[in-house]
Amino acid sequence: MSGIVRTGVAAAIAVAGLAVAASAAERPVTHYDLKDINFDMWCQEQQNLPPDRCDKRLPEDEEAFKAYVDKMHGYELRYLQKRQREQEINRDILHNDPVDNPNDPTQSLPEAVPGTVAPK
């Protein structure tokens, strides 16, 4: 491969990398509000263990609780991400039509073609 072609390929890769980095930087970092789960409530209501056993907080109970919390947070995270995507689609596509609703107040609706009736 000649030096010019290698330089061109390297430049193209660098530009693509910068474009990806720029688009990632434009997207806001989202922190999801995952709800905390109380060990005692989980122990008594989900596991149906007596309060005395729950107060002991045995290592196997702690491990089962951590597994339960991780599983529930996974479900909750996917739900919150899906809800955010739906809100973005609703905002960006359904309600942000630049033709019917210009974002810039200086933009006007397209001019009517001579000989046609302007919409009311």
Give the secondary structure arrangement, pairings included.
Elements: H1 3-26, H2 39-46, H3 51-56, H4 59-94
Strand/helix succession: HHHH
- Give the number of domains: 2
* CA-based gyration radius: 28 Å
Helical proportion? 55-70%
Mean pLDDT: 74
Largest sheet descriptor? none
Name the structural class. Answer: mainly alpha
Count of runs of 4 or more consecutive helical residues: 4
- End-to-end Cα distance: 63 Å
What are the low-pLDDT stretches, counting only 5+ consecutive residues below 50? 18-26
Could you say which overall geometry the principal axes of the C-alpha atoms support? elongated
List the quaternary state of the chains. Answer: single chain
| Number of separate strands | 0
Question: In percent terms, what proportion of residues is strand?
Answer: under 5%
